[in-house]
What we know:
Blueprint: E1 5-11, E2 17-25, E3 33-39, E4 44-50, E5 57-63, H1 65-71
Parallel strand pairs: 1-5
Antiparallel strand pairs: 1-2, 2-3, 3-4, 4-5
Amino acid sequence: MVTPHKFTFISAIDDKPAEAWVVLLEHPHRGDGYAVVFDELSGEFGLAQFAEGYEPSLLGWYGDFFEALEAM
């Protein structure tokens, strides 16, 4: 878990910008890997990916925190 911070991602679903709160990082000290994110408007948790040389991507919404964590 990390201190939540808002981040802008490119949605893999529709290629549009999407804002979400990063609440968990797979590799918090490396800066790459998967992240569990939270959308305060819908109340859903999702999965995002950080990869060197690419825009951060929002991969999809999974409902609750544990469903997003399982998708990781």
